[in-house]
Each structure stands twice: as C-alpha cells, then as structure tokens.
Design brief:
Blueprint: E1 7-9, E2 18-24, E3 27-33, H1 40-46, E4 64-69, E5 72-74, H2 82-86, E6 89-91, E7 95-97, E8 101-106
Parallel strand pairs: 1-5, 2-8
Antiparallel strand pairs: 2-3, 4-6, 4-8, 5-7
Length: 110
C-alpha cells in the first residue's frame, strides 16, 4: 500500500513559511512562500510559471500539480479522483504547505 502522507487533511498545521520549487515543462521557479499573504497558485504565477486557473475553488482541476517532495494540506479537492489524491496530486488553489519545503510538478508542454 502507498502512504497518503503527500496530501494531508487541512487540520494539519499550515507552515508559517515554506521553500517552494515548482516546475512546468522546462520552466522552474524556487522561492520562499508565506501562505498568509497569497495562495500557492498566485505565488507561483507571480514568479513566472503560468499556472492554468479557472474556478479557484477546487472544482475545475485546472491548477493540479503533483507533490514531488514535502507535504501539503488541501481544503477542497472536488475535481480529483481518489487515485489522483493518493498519487499526490493537489489543487494549488486549495493547497497549503505543512512541511518547510515542497516541490510541485505541473503538467505542461515539454
């Protein structure tokens, strides 16, 4: 059985700050992130990766990424299947870091 530690429930403590690495195709950004200031999808987009977004409420699934390293908590993930959640896929509009470092991989044109 695969561990479900990549995605935990929101009851887990959100990190005060977190080092974030995000990749989409050949693009990569690394930065310090403060969850209290903006959403993860906003922070990544601001730093140069054009994350697709639509609903910002966990319903459409356009901002999905795979957690490669670290742990996040997710409030809503309506657009994801149980298998996707088990495989570490999160919706970045709803994800909050729990660990002090996370690495995310977005699907993108190679």
């Amino acid at each position: 059985e695969q561990s479900d530690d990549a995605v935990s429930h929101l009851e887990a403590a959100t990190a005060q700050s977190c080092a974030v690495s995000a990749t989409m195709g050949s693009q990569e950004v690394t930065f310090d992130y403060c969850p209290q200031e903006e959403s993860l999808v906003e922070a990544i987009t601001k730093r140069g990766i054009n994350v697709p977004v639509s609903c910002r409420g966990g319903v459409c699934g356009s901002c999905s990424a795979t957690v490669v390293e670290g742990e996040v908590a997710v409030e809503h993930s309506y657009a994801l299947t149980k298998k996707e959640r088990k495989d570490g896929v999160v919706l970045c509009c709803q994800a909050r870091p729990v660990s002090d470092h996370i690495k995310l991989a977005f699907k993108g044109d190679q």
